[in-house]
Amino acid sequence: MHYTRSLQDYSSQLVYEIDSGNANALLAASGLLAKLSFINTPLMSAEAAGGDPVPAWIRSMQGVKTIMQTPKLRKDLEQGILSVVVRHYNGISSSADDVVDVDNKQLGAGTVKALRELCDVGPGDCVSNPYASVIARLEQLMLVVPTHDKVDQYLAFIATLEPSFIDLLKRMDARALLILAHWCTRLSLIQQWWTGPSAKAECRRICAHLITNKDPMVQALLLFPASFCGFELHTQDQLPTPPSNP
């Protein structure tokens, strides 16, 4: 009940009082509501429930766009106490303080390379290819140690998904779903109260949809997310070859 009321009040602020000087409160509230939405992710797939194929938690995180696209709010945020958070929504996700995830570097680089190959992402495709910029942002998350101070970077990854990519998720596009699944595997490593169980639930939803996909590259890229969430794809003698490392 309290979650519903808070969501209603937040939505009302965005519609009717968006210029009332409460930019920092709105951004902070949106982050908390996004986490609550994620932790309440239903275990059954949206398809089985007959609902929106795009999970509610993605819609919730996308709400930050309204704040960032309002000039007055954006200016207040860039000059306020949450300016360090805002930079992630401006596309500035890496810094000199980032620590390379040595344990995951080889697997992460191989996964990103395989995703680019699957999605036909070539040099200069960031505008024409709907997967390109999303994979580039995922690469930053794959190669950096997922510490607690990276939470806003993970939220920003979802919040800044382009409409064209959201449309792919709505159509249950296999390549878009794979990107989302690998995001889930990294998010869970932060081990906060809202991350692990829901990330695994979302991963299982994706695996259940893609298990019938006949593309060997899709099945290879699905191996790690399936292992992460405990979803059995194949018997050992049927496993496809994982993506090769560069």
Give me the secondary-structure topology:
Layout: H1 2-16, H2 23-39, H3 46-49, H4 56-62, H5 64-68, H6 71-78, H7 83-89, H8 102-118, H9 132-143, H10 151-159, H11 163-170, H12 174-187, H13 196-210, H14 216-229
Helix pairs in contact: 1-2, 2-4, 4-10, 8-9, 9-12, 12-13, 12-14, 13-14
Descriptive report:
- Helix content is 62%, strand content 0%.
- It has 2 domains: 88 residues; 137 residues.
- About 6% of the residues have low confidence.
- With 246 residues, it is mainly α.
- Helix 12 runs parallel beside helix 14.
Query: What's the structural domain tally?
Result: 2
Order of helices and strands: HHHHHHHHHHHHHH
Number of helices: 14
**Structural class, judged by helices and strands?**
mainly alpha
Taking all Cα atoms into account, the compactness measure Rg is 18 Å
Mean pLDDT: 84
Shape: globular
Tally of extended strands? Answer: 0
Residue fraction in strands: under 5%
The unreliable regions are 43-48, 235-242
Percentage of residues assigned to helices: 55-70%
What is the CA–CA distance across the termini? 50 Å
The profile of the biggest β sheet is: none
Structure keywords:
single chain; 246 residues; mainly alpha; 14 helices; 0% strand; globular
